[in-house]
Amino acid sequence: MFQTSMTDNSSTQTQTIDPAKLDLSHMETPDAGLSPAEVVLAIAENSETTIRRVLSSYEIGQKIRQLRLRKKIALVDLGKHTGLSASMLSQLENGKLIPTLSTLARIAMVFDVSLDHFFADRRRRRSFLVVRASDRIKFPDRPSAPRPDYFFECLAFSAQEKSLQAYVAEFPYRQADDVTEHYHEGAEFVHVLQGTVAIRYQGDDYILKEGDSVYFDSAEPHSYRGDDVNMVGRAIVVTTPPRL
Predict the structure, then answer these.
(1) Were 82 and a residue from 8, 106, 139, 236 both cysteine, which residue would form a disulfide, CB within 3.0 to 4.6 Å?
(2) Predicted pLDDT of residue 162
(3) In this structure, which long-range contacts are made by residues 154-161, counting pairs with CB atoms below 8 Å and at least 24 apart in sequence?
(4) Does the domain made of 19-119 have the CATH classification 1.10.260.40?
(5) What is the pLDDT of residue 33?
């Protein structure tokens, strides 16, 4: 069943930072020959807020913390190796300070990584995707079917490289002979949210009511149908790819 497969926003709080503590490189005053609009743009792009916004997307502080915890090094011990105070390292990890290249170089040498480690793959993040109910689209099981066996909505249609597929499905009342069996590699899990859903598996019918669940090898022929003439069956359906 359900073999159909149907950007990254982050919010940053602006904090007031003492430039003396940031140890930033000198920022030049905009050239007097620039137009008023260009001067405004240059000032904006040279501000600490802009630098902070750009660098925050690389999550440098989080990468420093991950390296430290992976090596099981306390802040005080890391400070001894780098010549930086534990307080400063804590602020770097929490994103309260922007590190200079020389500071990053010290930390990189302690952990035996290159500076590239802090700037590479900035878009590679742990998968976390919110799909709003209003964004989902309902599809019939077969586009050309005059009387579909069921309808489904993909619950994570925009997620990439998913290790499973999740759907909410509706099963109108159907007679056993009205639905078509099918099969696909992998496994399947069904949890009934509303009504009654009948699942035929290996020639037998299993009646699932609200709250019931079933897990099965979807490589075997199976079908689904609503079994309550007065209520459409609704269920969460999860499928997984075949094991390699």
Answers:
(1) 106
(2) 79
(3) 154/4, 154/5, 154/6, 155/131, 155/236, 156/129, 156/131, 157/5, 157/6, 157/131, 158/6, 158/129, 158/131, 159/127, 159/129, 160/127, 161/127
(4) yes
(5) 55
Residue reference for tokens 């009342």:
173
pLDDT per residue as tens digits for the range 35-87: 555 554 454 445 566 677 777 778 899 999 999 998 888 999 899 888 899 99
Cα 191 from Cα 243, distance rounded (Å): 22
Nearest to 106 by CA among 67, 66, 79, 146: 79
What percentage of the chain carries pLDDT values higher than 90?
Answer: 43
